[in-house]
Specification:
2 copies of one chain form a homodimer.
Chain A lengths: L1 H14 L7 E2 L4 H9 L5 E3 L8 H4 L2 H8 L3 E7 L3 E2 L1 E4 L6 E5 L1 E6 H9 L6 E3 L6 H5 L12 H7 L5 E7 L4 E5 L3 E9 L2 E6 L10 E10 L11 E3 L5 E4 L7 E4 L21 E5 L4 E4 L4 E6 L3 E9 L4 H13 L4 E2 L2 E2 L4 H13 L15 E4 L2 H11 L21 E3 L8 H18 L1 H13 L1
Helix pairs in contact in A: 2-7, 10-11
Pfam families (chains A, B): Cupin_8
Protein name (chains A, B): JmjC domain-containing protein
InterPro entries (chains A, B): Cupin_8, JmjC_dom, RmlC-like_jellyroll
Chain lengths: ~450, ~450
């Protein structure tokens, strides 16, 4: 296996990864598609957004005046790391922890963002099509779409998001199933990038999904679902419906622990600092760690990716090289390691509530292309060779499955997660006995 | 593993393979690149070569007059199957057998081609840039290049070949490391196609490389290197330098033996019949079986393929799912099965001569891009997980290796094979002790 991984690593460096990320002037749609999108290679585009009013207008004063009273969702964490792997106090249990989400006025966000005494790191990074959904006053300050990219991708953006944060806030290594045009309006954005084939070296693992809660908000939760974090002011919420797990990358490319993650020795990260007025094409499925080097404002456009030959190969590589413990949002103990983890977790927090049986939520219309549903399931649930799960694929390879009535009109990350949840619950219903068995297991805990 | 292969097969059908191969009018270069080349999807182009003089001119009478006295290389076999896996008389040993190559005038070829009493199946299928090299009188009857395809591939043809054969001649399932534009001038060409990811299901195996010899030509060979085939008039020549092996596909998609080749149950071949004036885009690395349904004349253009993300993934899938017994043109017995095969072979033909130590042939200039050399080695020699061969990769991933002085000016199949041989011999020299060990092994046989 080691020889295989060596070859894979060499091949990716020889045939795929650029030695460094180029800076180019705005390409034509054809050049962009041919040299970057089709080849799945990142590139920085300069002088493409110089005409945006945002570059002149978007000062804190302007924001305060234009949208100061608008309600905005802010991600807050004690450490700056939201969507990250966190080791709990017992030093054994690891969880995937999401940021606390707080709704407040934009003025309030600006206040806490600049208040060094504020308890926590605020990051405006809610990826729910935030620019178009939450700040319609700002949309005319940027392009509705990056023309050459939309023409190359063959579709309009699924989501356009606003990002405001500084060097305290970090998005840990992950990938998105989107083509991404990331534009810096103010400040300096720092990315570390790895090609999709490095999935083989990143030790992706399933972690129980949890969320930060500040002490000021604990009254909103059943105390039995909270664990204190290392910071006395911050708690970890493990939801009572706690069947959800999240596959995540524990390797941090700025401090690779090759004793703990030996395969990570193969990675050779590409680093890039985006300056004001620059745009990064971040190709679909590329792994990335992102932060800011100072107070930074950005806008990104997510476009649907193509599910093509590369995607077929990626899935194979992913499931061949990754051991997964969970699917369906329900733990399946296919390895002693993950069972052990969960036992520790349960003993650590014995008040954990078993999940309720899932409800009827599958009532789909209008039709959605099955590849979207399938992709959602695959993203969450790659079956592994030692746990045959024949029903995990959408039944009938070419059968059209209908979408939920409640399906969101855009498929942002949030919308997709909801869609995936519904798809997974439907699949769980389809194998009733299976779910029953697992519900029994939970009841016994 | 079976679950993995199921998923791979489903994914390829859902996300990659067309349900059937489309017929389209000539596309623009951009359309062609975007919809077919980049996606690695075959398509038939109609009305693209209607203006070729060849369509009117290329009768047997015209050939006889224009090139009747030219010397041409003709592939001849007893069965019609050249470049095929053949089971020897003892019913145990299988070899890869190439056609006998005979040089004759074109008039002589036409004579034996139409003579039903002739002992053997003649097939004009020599892929050495034959149209441009052997028949300069004909090149103006066709386009020098298919414009939209050259623009999409970004290069000029490496080789343009002439094919003349009928329903007796078959090219068994194989792939080429080329983009291929295949044009029918007269008759009906029949293809069966499978996507590159089906490498996982095709039971590729290394066979000793042999060649047919008709009894009329046996006086040119050392009798101890010949075995009689099932047909008393035809022999199999096993060269005394017989260290060469060829990886080939034993599965015939028109008669799949799933008892013998269980993984082949996953394949779902696409079938196409090309009519006069039609052109098939046969994408790089697609597996294909080809024959004719009647007397058929064709011209094909081979273009260098792109070594990109898809190629990285393909290599991983190839080495992960295929067991290989040989590399360097020298057997390495990494599985009992292939050792057994070779033992049988040696006992069957005890006069087999051990190979001589390789000679100095590595004296390279001018430089060749290492990816080409590497690709050559990979095509022949994918290292497997249970035989670590650290020196098999071109030493120093980004080091420029120089090309042999004798490197052919075009890289047709023939030229590439020669280049590969030289690269392999150099690598063998680099690990002298290794070669020594194997030479010892041979001497003991």
């Amino acid at each position: 296996m080691d020889e295989l991984l060596n070859q894979l690593s060499d091949d990716a460096k020889d045939f795929w990864m650029p030695k460094k990320i180029s800076r180019i002037p705005p390409p034509t749609a054809v050049e962009f598609y041919r040299d970057y999108v089709s080849k799945n290679i990142p590139v920085i585009i300069t002088n493409a957004i110089n005409h945006w009013p945002a570059l002149q207008k978007w000062t804190d004063e302007y924001f305060d005046e234009a949208i100061g009273n608008e309600i905005v969702t802010v991600d807050v964490t004690p450490t700056g790391y939201g969507d990250a792997v966190l080791t709990l106090e017992n030093k054994k249990t690891q969880v995937f922890v999401q940021p606390e989400e707080r709704n407040m006025t934009f003025s309030k966000f600006l206040e806490i963002y600049h208040d060094k005494q504020f308890d926590g790191v605020p990051y405006l990074s809610h990826q729910n099509d935030s620019l178009r959904e939450q700040f319609p006053q700002l949309v005319h300050d940027v392009d509705r779409v990056i023309d050459f990219s939309a023409e190359a991708f063959g579709n309009m953006p699924e989501a356009v998001n606003l990002w405001i944060g500084d060097d305290r806030a970090v998005s840990t290594m992950h990938k998105d199933h989107y083509e991404n045009m990331y534009c810096v309006v103010r400040g300096l954005k720092h990315f570390i990038l790895l090609p999709p084939s490095d999935v083989a070296f990143l030790h992706e693992t399933e972690y129980p999904t949890t969320r930060y809660v500040h002490k000021s908000n604990v009254d909103q939760f059943d105390p039995s679902t909270l664990i204190q974090s290392k910071n006395p002011n911050w708690f970890i919420h493990m939801p009572p419906e706690g069947r959800e797990t999240t596959p995540w990358i524990p390797v941090d490319p700025v401090a690779i622990d090759t004793d703990k993650f030996p395969k990570a020795k193969h990675i050779q990260p590409l680093e890039v600092v985006l300056e004001e007025g620059e745009m990064l094409y971040l190709p679909s499925l590329w792994y990335h760690r992102a932060t800011q080097l100072c107070d930074t404002v950005s806008v990104n456009y997510w476009h649907d990716m193509e599910f093509d030959a590369k995607y077929v190969y990626f899935n194979f590589l992913h499931v061949t090289t990754t051991v997964h413990g969970g699917h369906n949002g329900i733990f399946i103990f296919n390895s002693m390691a993950s069972a052990k983890l969960y036992e520790t977790m349960v003993s650590y927090k014995s008040s954990f509530t078993p999940p309720k049986p899932v409800e009827q939520v599958w009532n789909f219309s209008p039709p959605v292309h099955p590849r979207i549903l399938k992709h959602q399931i695959l993203r969450k649930v790659p079956p592994t060779s030692n746990t045959p799960i024949p029903t995990i694929a959408v039944p009938g390879a070419r059968k059209v499955v209908e979408a939920p009535k409640t399906m969101p009109s855009y498929q942002s990350k949030v919308g997709l997660l909801e869609l995936r949840r519904q798809v997974e619950e439907r699949l769980a219903q389809d194998r009733n006995e299976d779910l029953q068995g697992r519900t029994e297991w939970w009841k016994q805990q």
